[in-house]
Structures are given as C-alpha cells and as structure tokens.
C-alpha cells in the first residue's frame, strides 16, 4: 500500500511541525536528541525540511523570515478530507484561519488556524504525504494534548469541527477531556485554570516517545535546551516537559505500554 492510499480519519492528529529562526541549529538539536535525519520538503512557506527515521517522515521544521517574531512552538496538524470546507467550519465556529488553505506542492493541502481559546493548529488534506509515517519508536510523536484554561467551550469547538466522541473527567481538581474517533482515543484537552503559562497561552503540546526519559532530559540540557518539568511517573508512563534551544516546549515520554 502506498502512502497516498492511506486515509486518516478526519480529526486524527497526523503531523507536527515547528517554525524556528535557526534551521541548521534546530536540525542539529533534534538530530542528536531523536536520531532524525533531514531532507527538504515543500518550500511554500520558506525553507523547510522533514525529519526522518529510517527514511520515513516524522515531523517538519521550517525557517521563519528574519523579521517575524512569532512564538516558537510545535504545532499539531489534524487530518481532513477537505481543507477548504474545514477552514470554513473553523471560521463559522469562532476560530480563525491565519494561513491558507494552500497547496504544499504535491504533498497535500493545508491551513493554519487558531481555536477560540487562541491555540494554533494545522489542518492537513493528504495527497502524496500522509503525515507521520512511524509510530511508537524513539523520536516519534505519540500523543497530542491541548493545554488550555478550561475545556468545556473549546471542547465544543473541536467536537463540532470533527465530530469527536468526547469523554469528560470533571472534578474539583481535574478538568480533562479525551477526544475519540471510531472508538479510540486520538487526543486530549487539559484545563489548567490559572496555572496556564501566560507566555504560551492555550497551546497544543506534542508528546514524543523516548527510550529513556531521564537520559533524554539530560541530553536536552547538554544540547542547549532546558528541562521545565523534571522526569516523573504519570498515568501513561515516565515523562518530562522540556524546551529546545529556541524555546519550543514539548513533552518526552517513555510510554508505560512499551
């Protein structure tokens, strides 16, 4: 089966990308941390490479124009069968579309949007490029979670957009929502109230699988990044929140299921 023949259910996280100022230095960081190799990808938004494991695409990294002072952060892309229709729905549900929809050469059609809470995400209508082609190995995206002030209103936005089945956990100390498609969990929303990072605001967090959380956290520091939340045991494995040298925040996790 070719990559192009594989369809991802609309609403499934299918790709992650990062826009940075120093492309070469960023390649060096993630190459050392995750073992990625790099090859050029579509250049519609400027210089852009894909990180690969064993020749298979894992994630994208692009270079910002020198005059663009945007927050540096990983962005989650959600699969769609029709980027133009999804973009219209985003606008009608209170979100905004900042880029596109536009064609990324023969790879597919994309747009970059923000939900009503301000969290930026992408939508991806696959053609030649289906998105992340490897799951479960060291250096691959394993989960995507929206960190926001409270989940109820923004949860309705995503539910309307992609028809997720929503599983809520609301208690005095937890505001958490799992988004499910075809009876399997695909992403989550976590309401953190006043502890939401003021600089980041509402944002999608990418979780990357690692073989050893403690060793990977140590390597992040050696490579010029920083550890924000030290390695600790969570419900789904041992995890830590870290940032790369340009400040892009992500989570590393050794999944309990491995």
UniProtKB/TrEMBL annotation:
Gene3D superfamilies assigned: 2,3-Dihydroxybiphenyl 1,2-Dioxygenase, domain 1 (3.10.180.10)
Domain of life: Bacteria
Domain VOC, chain residue ranges per copy: 12-126, 140-255
PANTHER family the UniProt entry points to: CONSERVED PROTEIN, GLYOXALASE-RELATED
Record's protein name: Hydroxylase
Species whose genome carries this gene: Streptomyces scopuliridis RB72
